[in-house]
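Self-study notes.
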Amino acid sequence: MTRLRLLAVLLAAALAGVLAEPGAAQTIVPGGPPTTVSTTSPGENASVFFDAVAGQRVSLEITDVTIGTSTCCSARVSLLRPDGRSLTTVTVGTNGGFLDATALPSTGTYTVLVDPQSTNVGDATLTLHGVPPDVTDTVAAGGAPVTATTTVPGQNALVTFAGTAGQRVSVAIADVTVGNSTCCSVRVSVLRPDGKTLVAPLFPPPARTRSSSTRRARVRAGSRSHSATSRPTRPPRWRSESPRPSPRPSRARTPP
């Protein structure tokens, strides 16, 4: 009887563990404090929920990742719609990652799903940002520079200028304090009036003579007009056809 009772107690405990109600769901608020999620068993996922309205923009920082050992590819982090479909996904490792600004299509409860790959387990810290509208400004070709400043991760800056067909412009980017990378913290593109890319994105180097946490860049646009008749031509460069002098023969040195 004692052995049967012991088996019964163990079976009841096992069933209680399987059928027990799940713990309190983790939530996160756009613009609020970060939340850390943890997985302890291979195959286990972690979910964090937040409420949002249609048209709201959010971005997500994933930091302090201890899931696996890969610097890039230990876990997939997805933003799920209220109906469970994936809206956007990024693969991260111990270097962390970022989901850029995303406009939410409907009102409801969204899910941030952290899915460790293979047998990886560990922690990740999630910071959800509410992204305001992009910064806008204007600059005149040949005029004074303007400074474009962003305040929330995922926010962009749009600086517009008026131009005419055939006009040539150049853009100088200086005093960059966006991020801390020496090469790759911001992409700068020139877009056509219809929004298509005219000049492919480039990565301006950061300012080296100043340090600041403000994310900004100074933009100056220059203008040069040209036409088929007014564009000056360069005089031709003539190359001499006379033969080059032959090198002098080297003299052999006589040993002392």
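Second protein, same conventions, sequence then structure:
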Amino acid sequence: MATIKVRPELTVLAGARYEYTKLTARGIQYDGQNTAMFSAGAPFDSVTPTSPYYGWSDIDLANLLFTTRIGTKSYGKLFPNLQIRYEPIKNLVIRAAYTENMGRPDFRTVMPGDTIYEHFNLIRRNNTELQPQQGRDINVKVEYYLPRSGVVSLTAFKQDIDNYIYPVVTSVRRFNPDTQLEEPWTLETSENAGKGSNEGIEFEYRQKLGFIADFLRDVEFRAVYSSADPKAEYLRRTGTPIYEDNPTQEQFDAYMNSPQAWTTIPLANVIKKSANVRLAYNGRKFSGSIAAFWRDDFARNLNLATLDHTYQKSDLRMDLSLTYKLSSRWSTYFDWRNFTDEADDRRIFDRTGGFYTSGMVMNLGIRANF
């Protein structure tokens, strides 16, 4: 990193870092349909009386169909970083930044292995070739510092995501030793199949309230509001997805040969609008805070075949925190999280998909600092 003072009021910080990742994963694959391995002359011959596998139980033979798979991959990336700080007048600061980042896939998704459901002709396969998601962030923040430790700020941000990881459904053909025919199977896996973006603004105001009255000098008010537009572009097939068991090859062909089109969908688990307000007191012996957190509804889970989205209903949660200092080293505290007992209400479009009470949490204890 290098810092350049272009002018007294203008500072530029620039640099880059390089990350290299090498992954080796070992997993287990089970293929319950591969019963040909037990036929005469096969590696696990259970038919011939002289075979060491003759007379084995079905459970013991099934355990032989577990095989070890090893997957390896490596990748590297250079991450540039540019930050600018500009102070045109006293107490007014403008900050701008361009950064790049990387989100590696969950380790479980790249662990080699298949889960095979014979009754449904379904294979769920981990993808050892998944590449990390890559993001580019641009942030511009304007801050104005107020008397008595106050600040008001406005931030505009934009993030672009490449190699967005999505679950996808495809078709494969597998040989059935019982019928001696190849059958269509559904293959579910994850791929770098999309791209996403998120842009919006955030407003923050923080101020100690001593300017109202002197007895409020140790009370601080903070409010934050964020609004974003998280969305993704997914390349999906436009044909009708297949839901019935053991579909025909014609049904699979119709779906797999249907045209592909980019479809805009919401980014999962990214909140569109949120706000929080906090009032805190910090005295010599006693300190405490009460806070309210609001978030708008947002997409929790996505079904990319049907484009049905499970939404988290908007909610308002409130927290209370109290601390009393017994000495310079010891203090006692009481935390009451979600004391309004806000529930977790998820909806599929306008229908309630599930109702779960998340419940409040209370913590009471003694803390020591050494």
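Instructor comment on the second fold: The radius of gyration is 29 Å.
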